[in-house]
């Protein structure tokens, strides 16, 4: 085959790949675009007219959100819980992953297998016994009751262990020769060389914590303590759903996550190239 024909074939394949990716990306964005457009529609216009363009631009949905529910308070509650919970998960995961990656101790493999098993168990299975423990500790209807049971993340420990295994042992040995103890070695060598992984993991954990619905709903009884995902059910009547304010809540809820991702997207992508989980 001639070189010119090879170049034409490669160009066709590359164009086909890009076209398929663009179609998939657009299909993924359709629900988000519809959500955003619906938040500016009138109730009569939700399922009528254009799918993405409201025939009559209206802010009534957003006005109803701030009027009917304590949105600002719930937004702050979600922020406090998500930030503290994400920070705690990262701290525990760093320590546990460093131990699994660098220490040889009896029962290490069975213990790590147990950590992996926590990723395979649906969280709903553990909700009732966890709630009973939280209730006995007197932490029902508190932020601590929401945060404490979620601090140990098997996924975070696994991902960071994979990242720490890629760090050359010689760097840790050099740090020990220079007088660093284990905590200093962990911070100055392993953590600093895994910043991109930590950023990517932190974003994933934050999104999961921000979107958590069932556990905060179960633990937090006081309306002033509830989190933002609970707002989605506030506009549901017995046989109907008020789409406009619900989509307004959804739009406002994704703005912090979208902003964080736009700031950290480069490190988010780079993070997975350092974890040993390459496709």
Automatic annotation (TrEMBL):
Which Pfam families does UniProt cross-reference here? BPD_transp_1
- Entry's localization field: Cell membrane
Which residue windows are transmembrane per the record?
20-37, 74-99, 111-134, 140-160, 189-207, 243-264
| Biological process terms in GO annotation | transmembrane transport
Keywords assigned by UniProt?
Answer: Cell membrane, Membrane, Transmembrane, Transmembrane helix, Transport
Q: Tell me the PROSITE patterns matching this sequence.
A: ABC_TM1
Give every ABC transmembrane type-1 domain span. 75-264
Q: Which CDD domains match?
A: TM_PBP2
GO CC: one term?
plasma membrane
Q: How does it sit in the membrane?
A: Multi-pass membrane protein
Q: Which PANTHER family match?
A: ABC TRANSPORTER PERMEASE PROTEIN MG189-RELATED (PTHR43744:SF12), ABC TRANSPORTER PERMEASE PROTEIN MG189-RELATED-RELATED (PTHR43744)
Family membership noted in the UniProt record: Belongs to the binding-protein-dependent transport system permease family.
Q: What is this protein called?
A: Carbohydrate ABC transporter permease
């Amino acid at each position: 085959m001639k070189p010119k024909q090879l170049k034409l074939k490669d160009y066709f394949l590359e164009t086909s790949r890009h076209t398929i990716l663009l179609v998939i990306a657009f299909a993924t964005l359709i629900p988000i675009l519809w959500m955003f457009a619906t938040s500016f529609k009138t109730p009569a216009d939700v399922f009528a007219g254009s799918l993405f363009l409201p025939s009559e631009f209206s802010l009534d949905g957003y006005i109803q959100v701030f009027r009917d529910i304590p949105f600002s308070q719930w937004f702050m509650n979600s922020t406090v819980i998500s930030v503290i919970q994400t920070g705690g998960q990262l701290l525990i995961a760093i320590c546990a992953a460093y131990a699994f990656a660098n220490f040889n101790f009896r029962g290490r493999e069975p213990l790590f297998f147990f950590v992996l098993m926590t990723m395979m168990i649906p969280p709903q299975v553990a909700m009732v016994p966890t709630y009973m423990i939280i209730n006995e500790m007197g932490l029902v209807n508190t932020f601590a009751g929401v945060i404490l049971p979620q601090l140990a993340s098997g996924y975070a420990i696994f991902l960071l262990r994979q990242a720490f295994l890629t760090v050359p042992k010689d760097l840790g040995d050099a740090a020990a020769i220079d007088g660093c103890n284990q905590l200093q070695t962990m911070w100055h060598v392993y953590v600093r060389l895994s910043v991109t992984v930590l950023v990517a993991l932190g974003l994933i954990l934050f999104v999961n914590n921000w979107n958590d619905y069932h556990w905060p709903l179960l633990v937090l009884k006081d309306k002033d303590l509830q989190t933002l995902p609970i707002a989605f059910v506030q506009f549901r009547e017995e046989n109907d759903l008020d789409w406009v304010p619900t989509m307004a809540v959804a739009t406002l809820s994704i703005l912090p996550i979208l902003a964080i991702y736009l700031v950290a997207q480069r490190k988010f992508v780079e993070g997975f190239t350092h974890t040993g989980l390459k496709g």
